[in-house]
Amino acid sequence: MAALSLAEAVPTEKMPGWQQALSEMFGTAKLPPLLDMLKRVIEANQATRKPKIAKGTRDFMPDQMTIREQAFAKIVSVFKRHGAVAIDTPVFELRETLMGKYGEDSKLIYDLADQGGENLSLRYDLTVPFARYTALHGMGNIKRYHIARVYRRDQPQMNRGRFREFFQCDFDIAGAYAAMVPDAEVLKVLVEILSDLALGDFEIKLNHRGLLDTMMDIAGVPTSKFRPICSAIDKLDKEPWEEVRREMVEDKGLPGPVADRIGEYVVLKGEPWEMLKKLTDDSCALSSHPISSATLADMKTLFEYLDSMGALGAISFDLSLARGLDYYTGVIYEAVLKGGGVGSIAAGG
Amino acid sequence: MAALSLAEAVPTEKMPGWQQALSEMFGTAKLPPLLDMLKRVIEANQATRKPKIAKGTRDFMPDQMTIREQAFAKIVSVFKRHGAVAIDTPVFELRETLMGKYGEDSKLIYDLADQGGENLSLRYDLTVPFARYTALHGMGNIKRYHIARVYRRDQPQMNRGRFREFFQCDFDIAGAYAAMVPDAEVLKVLVEILSDLALGDFEIKLNHRGLLDTMMDIAGVPTSKFRPICSAIDKLDKEPWEEVRREMVEDKGLPGPVADRIGEYVVLKGEPWEMLKKLTDDSCALSSHPISSATLADMKTLFEYLDSMGALGAISFDLSLARGLDYYTGVIYEAVLKGGGVGSIAAGG
């Protein structure tokens, strides 16, 4: 475009052929505004034709691919060290396989157009496809990892690193094992990966669905409201208690005193053994409730395993931690970088 | 289910609780037919609930993943040895990016459901996304590889290894280079990969779009029919000449004598230097036609490069080779295993 904006100063005989031809047709006086107009038309066309990438997705350039491959290699190395095998599943599943598995989030599932065949949807995570995989192939005990892209038809905040297409690196232990053994190994794997990736100081917030349920039961939440209230608690890492309380009372119809009793529990967090001591003390209602007393015994077993594996130092026992999806029934956890700002960097249950 | 079919022989007191309860309600005489009915109902339910995988897709089990990873590692190693860098692009593109790029095959593109946002389609290959990538990021010369899945809404013959979701391993050289240098390197890369993978004896059929066009011009095909006739020639590896001739004459309206003149060319194939000698001889109409004479000079250059790289032995110069997609303009090729049966195992242009 530089040649065009310089045209006024260029002697006619030095102009490119087409400019010279134009100049002869219109005289040099008229040439600059004509060129200006041409410039605008051409630039507008280029803007129109500029190829676009789909919203919420990204290209990986060679240098980004190098980083990605190095990170995945470290993660895979930890997975393999713990005896996991790789599997892979298709990017889409029958719509019925995904339906009803994600609660409120089901609206974020990408459907394929009905093209006279099956009804298909892009996978939302790797967990439900893995459940379909084990049901289809009839596996017994399996420890597997799966690194692949998942899809969420969200309004992503790309400046915060959130996309509509992104990778999940999943590690699962399926089958029958002694209590808390798989949970301990999964947490150990997470600690090893976060150490190897050297992203900075991290902390793993840990809780148990059984404690959340008991807490709500003791506070007086009706069973039918456990899930909506749980999903309100889940927002505590992004919103202050006052806003979460408002949602419980105004949006979800919980009496104020019930919400306040929840508020007394969700402030409890800290070093695992100290927390366990506090919660199993006779003065704590959780210690005698039938669900939570069994759960607290499980937590003790889990902490003993983690301690012997040198993985307990990274754990914070945090009663405010909840997870949105319905399929979590036992231990739940979320890893965050200390210093914050980036949200959770790994999670599971 | 074993417990059910054995019920007749089991003393009532040894039966599981629910069978015992049934037995008391109906008496043991009525129990076996009742259990039989229950068995049928349960099995029918299980058949309904058996989770399904989407048609034309597959799960990769751990042992298949091992083979896949080994094969990809060998392929990537050859790509890197030739100085290629990795890139990756999203699984879907704006529909307009893919539209009009694949001729008749556009009907095989998977569209995503219109969900109030952009119109999106799953990628059909890695070539058009790469063109979009280079246009968007404004690269100069780049040698890149891209290993990823592509999607075709086909009726796939899965017993012949054809799927709706499958991997492509692409290697591309984009930018400005001396004539035939990138073509020679791409073919050398292909020879190295097929040797390293040790799939068995292979052969690379080679042709040039310029020769196909000249051949049709000399035979008397009108320019407007070049593409339909080309796509008929493309079927010669699966159908006999008689069927291809019938398609040209009956379906595509070519006069019989014109089809017969094409028939005289498409039987020509063989060792590159011998074929080149034959086609550049004054007695061959291709030698003096303006398009093909330049093309034959290019082929000579290409063969010299391949010869010096020790890659010419695998090449068969084959005038019957055509490629379906519109975006091929120069050299085209297709690799097949000798002994046949599996169709082409790699192709490009």
From TrEMBL, chains A, B:
One GO biological process term = mitochondrial translation
GO cellular-component term (any)? cytosol
Q: Which family does it belong to?
A: Belongs to the class-II aminoacyl-tRNA synthetase family.
Tell me which domain of life the UniProt entry assigns to the organism this sequence originates from: Eukaryota
For this protein, the record's SUPFAM superfamilies field holds:
Class II aaRS and biotin synthetases (SSF55681)
Q: Which residues form the signal peptide?
A: none
Q: Which residues bind L-histidine?
A: D125, L126, T127, R152, Q168, D172, R323, Y327, Y328
Pfam hit, one: tRNA-synt_His
Spell out the protein name for this chain. histidine--tRNA ligase
Q: Which PANTHER family match?
A: HISTIDINE--TRNA LIGASE, HISTIDYL-TRNA SYNTHETASE
At the top of the EC hierarchy, this enzyme's class is ligase
What reaction does this catalyse? tRNA(His) + L-histidine + ATP = L-histidyl-tRNA(His) + AMP + diphosphate + H(+)
Q: Which residues form the Aminoacyl-transfer RNA synthetases class-II family profile domain?
A: 33-321
Cross-referenced CDD domains: HisRS-like_core
Q: Which InterPro entries match?
A: aa-tRNA-synth_II, aa-tRNA-synth_II/BPL/LPL, HisRS-like_core, HisRS/HisZ
- EC number of this enzyme: 6.1.1.21
PROSITE patterns cross-referenced by the UniProt entry: AA_TRNA_LIGASE_II
UniProt GO molecular function: histidine-tRNA ligase activity; RNA binding
